[in-house]
Amino acid sequence: AYERRFPTCPLIPMFVASDTVSEYKSEDEAIHVIERRCKLDIDAPRLLKKIAGVDYVYFVQKNSLNRRERTLHIEAYNETFSNRVIINEHCSYTVHPDNEDWTCFEQSASLDIKSFFGFESTVEKIAMKQYTSNIKKGKEIIEYYLKQLEEEGITFVPRWTPPVTCKSESSTTHTRRPVSPAINIPESATKEGLNNKEILNTSSSPSEPTAGTPDDKLDADYIKRYLGDLTPMQESCLIRLRQWLQETHKGKIPKDEHILRFLRARDFNIDKAREILCQSLTWRKQHQVDYILDTWNPPQVLQDYYAGGWHHHDKDGRPLYVLRLGQMDTKGLVRALGEEALLRYVLSINEEGLRRCEENTKVFGRPISSWTCLVDLEGLNMRHLWRPGVKALLRIIEVVEANYPETLGRLLILRAPRVFPVLWTLVSPFIDDNTRKKFLIYAGNDYQGPGGLLDYIDKEIIPDFLGGECMCEVPEGGLVPKSLYRTAEELENEDIKLWTETIYQSASVFKGAPHEVLIQIVDASSVITWDFDVCKGDIVFNIFHSKRAPQPPKKDSLGAHSITSPGGNNVQLIDKVWQLGRDYSMVESPLICKEGESVQGSHVTRWPGFYILQWKFHNMPACATTNLPRVDDVLASLQVSSHKCKVMYYTEVIGSEDFRGSMTSLESSHSGFSQLSAATTSSSQSHSSSMISR
């Protein structure tokens, strides 16, 4: 039955093909070893595949069948990226030591990620997700082929016998622990397997007792009041895990409600729940999370500009958290505080959520272990897609998912604009499947209709900014003043890197010496995105296209092509002999950017070739009537010492298919958020968009 899944298996969509590398059979046919090279289409974000430069990954699988001992051992390891990631897997089918009519299946694997282009945690999540889904489907696949054999009339395969003499009994000694047959294990415990083991069996047999002894049972009133409905097996798992913690854990023992969250997150598999709970307890101790509400005071900029807060409760009694993400300047908060302070604030919100769940449990007289989050996206735009900000969000999601499982009861996303699919595409692969099922997304004013907000929140507490009558004390957000921004040097000195070493670069722009960045495009319709701050002076931003590559800049520090300075580098790529219109062409209208402005934008490329992003010194225009400079221009020019400007920039190329066809969202730079700015200008063409904010 197992061999029928080769060379490919329709029940495993990711298994594209396989080729036999080597094969060995012993003379007596007792041993059959076959090695295959398997081609897999991993369910990973297309963006990650683009970065890695592969569409498929290859594994080598070695299957060793021993008919004499009645065992099948399967070993697999990755061939692709083997110098960066090491994956080893071992599976075995054996005869049960107590009943030879039963087949035991055991599976184990190890994952060691040395490096993966800065996406180590992402790859780990994808690998674990893929592996878990494969474990769940393993029994289904083998039973599918067993049924197929039965339909073909094959219901019995004679045992192997030696060609000359026949031994009455195998002398093999089995040392494995007895394993209970699957038919007697509760269904909820076999979703991911107990200890990664499953038994394929059609007969029944007494199983190992899973429920605790009468002395270990919890009080029924206590369960109903604080924990909710638990089956005897679930109750037993809770008692056993708590007892293990009491015997082995030296620190503070978490409450039953908290232990239960980790058990539920792993479908009451004790080993898996114990592993993630221990990791979380260690993490809490290292970062003093238990004391965060008492010892940490959020910076004033968070209290003023973080547009989120607690607001009453939903119809189920869950605490309600309101987040006006569309009105929040995520870039400004990260630039002013750094990622660590923002993460710590989110952790304090989660700790407050746990405290409120305990309070509501007492108030409503029933167990409340999760909260509801209402996210208003009115005003969401390209500024929120600032790549370092998105990466900070992904890290926050990762930390929260690992340490606060099963705390989100429901997530209501309201007034989702056109740009939302872009953000969702970037974020959704990192959100647990169980969590994702709790999301309800409403576009426009759909939340006011049937199946909308009134189904989950009482009319009396709907916030005023959503058309309700209840005054909501959540801060309104707005743009964080640039005067509060920290420089890259300050962040580096405080050991808060903010990816400045790898993502943001600083450059100096001189009069007659622009700074230029080369981007090579292989596939047309790719998307060039940029984000930069004009730290000093006024500049003109241009985008050019050329079919031929410019000469690499010279290394001399004072030459015409490259100037180095303490404040940043300066590179010139466009040769002085090149002519505009002949050797290269302008693909966007010039964009004048003033000192202190932040610019985000994108360009959808029409042709392959070489694109050059240019930051050029902006010369002050003279007065039209007198040809004399204006007073304001003279004063402004005096402020720019030595005709020097400075920019901090970040660029990235993304394939348009990674946005699920939502290119219109990339072009959407006009939204309510831009109205928060004192003065906002936008330039938008058919194939590009930019947003400038002062």
Automatic annotation (TrEMBL):
CDD domains: SEC14 (cd00170). Gene3D superfamilies: CRAL-TRIO lipid binding domain, GOLD domain. The keyword Lipid biosynthesis does not apply. Residues 167-216 are annotated as: Disordered. It holds the Pfam family CRAL_TRIO. It is found in: Cytoplasm; Golgi apparatus. One of its GO terms (cellular component) is Golgi apparatus. Keywords: Cytoplasm, Golgi apparatus, Immunity, Innate immunity, Phosphoprotein, Signal transduction inhibitor. Interacts with RIGI (via tandem CARD domain); the interaction is direct. Interacts (via GOLD domain) with SLC18A3; the interaction is direct. Interacts with SLC5A7 (via GOLD domain); the interaction is direct. This is SEC14-like protein 1. It comes from Mionectes macconnelli.
